[in-house]
Amino acid sequence: MAVQSDPVREMREQYARCCLRVDFEPLPGATFRASLKPIFPELRMARAALSAGYLFRDDDLLRDGNDSLEVIVAQSPDLNITHQGREIRLAPGDATIMQASATGRVGSPKSFGFLEVVISRAEWEAHGARAEDGLMQRLSGKSEGMQLLRPYIAFVEKDRTASVENRSIIRTHIVDLLALAATTRHSIGESSASAVMATRLAAALDYIASHFSDPELSLNNVARSLGISRRYLQKLLGTAGVSFASHVNELRLKRAYMLLTDSCGDNVRISDIIYQSGFSDVSYFNRLFRSRFGHSPSDVRASSAEPI
After folding, report:
1. In terms of Cα–Cα distance, which of 204, 155, 158, 199 is closest to 178?
2. What domain range includes position 295?
3. 138, 155, 173 — which closes off a domain?
4. Residue 111 and which of 1, 139, 211, 218 are 20 to 30 A apart at CA?
5. What CATH number is given to the structural domain containing 289?
6. Sign of the alpha-carbon dihedral angle for 105, 70, 21, 153
7. Distance between CA 245 and CA 238 in Å, rounded?
8. Cα–Cα nearest to 178, from 253, 123, 231, 251
9. pLDDT for 122-176, tens place per residue?
């Protein structure tokens, strides 16, 4: 008679206890699911999604000598954390810090998810924080530090082309932002700190990438949406070596080129493509397009339609 597999036991023996140095206790009757998605190994971050139950470290697992700090950012409602004699509940976007050298558990009576960032004590202290900062404290997802951190991580996840050198800089920014979230009691504002500027720049570029086809998009619109001044936004874009107008025009021109060479859009008028790309002045678009690609829009469309 065939022996039925036990996915929970297999996960524990083959992966959880031996590799992750954690264990998992599912709730009775819950269908077991588990997923772990690293975000670049160098960043020491991962997203976890599990079925109802609890991840935990017990006395046996503590013998590995790991004394790192583990930042837990909730991705689902009612994430319950028990650690060092305290219990807290996190809402989506909230975070807290646990010590790997002490027993604890993270879970929920429903399927749950979280983002984990592992930080060594030396790294944490090098960023101006103490070991106890943020420890089993609820770092509100509405705080300025967390509002900066989450979109920055999302931006990093979308850009899978970051070099190893850039990942080192990204890691520094992430730990800086976590230290700010755990220690800062005043407004971060329009700080010149590299981590803050990098984060706000990433948010600005992401906003522009999502709204460039809007002909009403302006420097003031972007600054207002991010809660920063126009002057500060210009400063941020300057660190990337671009101006607002040139960056927006480049995105619009690439969009127009793609639409012109898309065989599915052969029946769409060029003037409509111009407006769909965010331009409102046909003559201005034609000058920019020829300067950028060396051909007129009609020439590009005609050449793409020629049989190979």
Report:
1. 199
2. 249-305
3. 138
4. 139
5. 1.10.10
6. positive
7. 12
8. 123
9. 999 999 899 899 999 999 999 989 999 988 988 888 877 767 778 889 999 999 9
